[in-house]
Design goal:
Elements lengths: L24 H31 L14 E12 L2 E7 L11 E7 L4 E5 L6 H4 L1 E7 L5 H7 L6 E9 L11 E7 L3 H12 L8 E8 L8 H10 L4 E7 L10 E2 L4 H7 L6 E6 L2 H7 L14 H5 L7 E3 L2
Parallel strand pairs: 7-8, 7-11, 8-9, 9-10, 11-12
Antiparallel strand pairs: 1-2, 1-6, 2-5, 3-4, 3-6
Amino acid sequence: MLKGISHSVIKHSTCQPQKRLFATYNNSLPNTKWRYIAGIALITAGGSYLGWRYFNKGLKIGTLNNERYVPLEVLKKEQISPDSYLLRLSVSANEHHFPVPSCVYVKDDTIQVMRPYTPINPDPYHDGFMDLVIKRYQNGSVSRMLSALKPKDKAFVRGPMTEEYGYKEKSLDEVGLIAGGTGISPMYQLIRRILENTDDKHTRIWLIYGNKTLEDILLKKELDQLQEEHNDRFKVKYVLELPPSDSDDYEKGYITKEMIEGMMLDGKRRKIFVCGPDRMLAYICGERAKDYSQGNVTGILDQLNLVPNEIWKFQ
């Protein structure tokens, strides 16, 4: 991650005093040249260090900031699938509620690349930590960097970054969720915020979650537990390309129009959230527009006559 600023130490060679009768032009020119270069280097390094100190003045470890990247300490790392990890980062307490839905930006400082991640615990400010699900991609510099972190290491994080849509308690009768792969993160954040809010008892939720194999299902244990505890309000359907042959608990293939119709309720105030790979979004509801606005509704949800204000596409 971000390396600390270190002071360069320039060692001058020590020589015994020598009697010099002449200092020729040819001998003094190289000495003057390298002194000039060394001077410029020191000025540049000093200016960079002072600039860094000024920019980061007042920042504290663990205190989130949506304008700057701050270091968060790794508290725990747990492997939850063959290529995925749960990373717990320390967060300073805050009197405000963590916005839902929202994400944070995580930076790989070695190449100045950032990626968005959604905390899966509903209120990091209250919990004192932030849980991120990290799926390691071979060509993903940020995911590889995060997957390599160990407890007491630092991750540099900026946020929370809010969506244009902010969930408000008791604003919806029905919340539909369609997710693929790591697209479960913002869904799980929203599920827990609704189900754990004692003032939001009447909102019903359904989730269709698509993956390739049983081992690829992220947070399955947690989702099954929530479904058991709130079976009158929360239903889950798992869809697998390659389901286990000895179980009938999973739909085989891909998410279909019939599956969505079978999960939909009759809520008058309804919103369906979609998050997953671009191909899945294109098939289910249409991708976001090039300017990152919601874009047109196409695909299966258009066939079901859903209108734009009933759908939200996560980035």
